[in-house]
Amino acid sequence: MHHYSGRRLSGTIHPSLQLQKRKGSLIEHTIIKLSTANLLFTSTHIILSRLIRVMIKDNENTMHTGHVRRRKGSNEVPGDVDQTTGTKLLAKDQNKYKSMLVRAYSTIWMIGGFIFVVYMGHLYIWAMIVIIQIFMAKELFNLLIKAHEEKQLPGFRLLNWHIFFTAMLFVYGRILSQRLVNTVTTDKFWYKLVGNLIKYHMVTCYFLYITGFVWFILSLKKKMYKYQFGQYAWTHMILIVVFTQSSFTVANIFEGIFWFLLPASLIVINDIAAYIFGFFFGKTPLIKLSPKKTWEGFIGASVSTIISAFVLANLFGRFQWLTCPRKDLSTGWLQCDPDPLFKPENFLLPEWFPCKEMQILPVQWHALGLGLFASIIAPFGGFFASGFKRAFNIKDFGDSIPGHGGMTDRMDCQMVMAVFAYIYHQSFIVAQSVSLGMILDQIVMNLSYEEQRELYSKLGQIIKDHQFGET
C-alpha cells in the first residue's frame, strides 16, 4: 500500500482564475440542487404528515383495548398478545404502523441532512460530529441530575461542560494540529502564531483541566459529597466511553471521507434492515436486554449489510472527493493520484457465470471486513445502550429525534464502528514504513520557519555536492 502523503493535493496552493470560475459554476449548481432538495423534502413532509394523521385516526377508531399496559411516558404502541401464552406476537402486531411512519419520517430527514453535509465536505462533517457530541453529552449529563441537589450547587453544571470542552480542545488539537499548520504555511505571521499554539497546546489543556479540578474541590459542600463525586466520575465516564470513541470519527474523515462514509452508512443500513426484517418477519427474540430485537432481523440485517458493503465500496471508491485525504483545513475540491486500493482491477469469474470477468476495486475486499463487523459486532453497542437504559429505568436517552429517541440512541453502534474503522485503517491500509510525507510532516511540525529555510539550503548544497561527485 502507498502512503497517502505521496499524492498531489490541491488544497495547499492558491486557486487560479480557472478554479475560481469552476467554483462559481459549482455554487450555481449547488443552489439548484438545494432548491430541488428543499422542494422534495417539503413534499415528503406534507405527504407523510397526512399519512400519520390518517393512521392515528384509524388506530383510534379500530384499536381494541386489552390487558397490555403502556409504560408511562412511552410512545411505543403495544403489540398483539397471544391469548393462550400471553406473549407478544412480534410479526402480527396490528398497531405498530403509527410508530413505523413516525420513524420513517425522521429517518428520511436524517438521511437527507446527512447527504447534504457529506456533499459540503470535511469541515462541515466535523462540525456535525461536534454538534452530535454536544447533544450526546447533554443527554447523558441529564441522566444523573437531581433537582434538589442542583439547587444547592449553583454553577456546578458549568464544571461538567468546562471539563467536556477542555477534552474537546485536547483531542481535536492533537488530531488536527498538522492540518492547521498546512493551512497557514503561506502566511508567515499566522504560521508562527499557529506554531506557538501547537507547541503549548498540551500544557494549555492541562492547566485548563487543573482549573476544573481545583474548581471542583472548592465547590464541595457538606452532605453533598457523594452527589458531587458521583457527578465528577460520571463526567469522566462520558468523556472516555462517548467522546473519545466518537472522536475517532474525525480522524477517519480527514483520512478520506470514504473511511467515514462507508462505516457510517453500513451502520445505518444494518439498523434499517434489522428494523424492516424484524417488523415483518420477527418472531424469535434475540436478547433479553432488547426484547424487540429478533433473530430474523439480526440475520436479515447481517446479509444485507455485507452485500451493501461490497457494492457501496465500489460506488464510493470512484469519487476522488471521497477517497482523497484532506491534509489541511481548506474547503476546496480535492484532486489526488488515486491510491492503488481505488484503482479498478479485472477479476475473473467462474465459467458458469454469464460474464467472464468484472472490474473490482481492491478496497471492496476490505469493505467486506467492515461489513462483517458492522453486522455482527457493532450491534452490541446497541445492546450495551439497552442494558444501560434498563439500569436507569428509562426508555430513551432523550426525545430529540421523533420515533428514534435521543441522539445517543442513534449513535451507540456508530461509536463502536468508528473506533474499529480507524484501527482497521491504521493497521491494514496505511503503510507503516517511514515515507517522505511522514518526514516532511515532522519537519513542518517541529522546526521553525528559519530552521526550515536552513534545512532547505543544506539539502540543496548536499544535492549539488552529489551531482558534482557523479560528474
TrEMBL record:
Its EC number is 2.7.7.41. InterPro entries: PC_trans, PC_Trfase_euk. The chain crosses the membrane at residues 100-119, 125-145, 157-177, 197-220, 232-251, 257-282, 294-316, 363-385. It is an enzyme of class 2 (transferase). Its cofactor is Mg(2+). It catalyses: a 1,2-diacyl-sn-glycero-3-phosphate + CTP + H(+) = a CDP-1,2-diacyl-sn-glycerol + diphosphate. Keywords: Lipid biosynthesis, Lipid metabolism, Membrane, Nucleotidyltransferase, Phospholipid biosynthesis, Phospholipid metabolism, Transferase, Transmembrane, Transmembrane helix. GO terms for biological process: CDP-diacylglycerol biosynthetic process. May be involved in the synthesis of minor phospholipids and in modulation of IP3-mediated signal transduction. Belongs to the CDS family. This is Phosphatidate cytidylyltransferase.
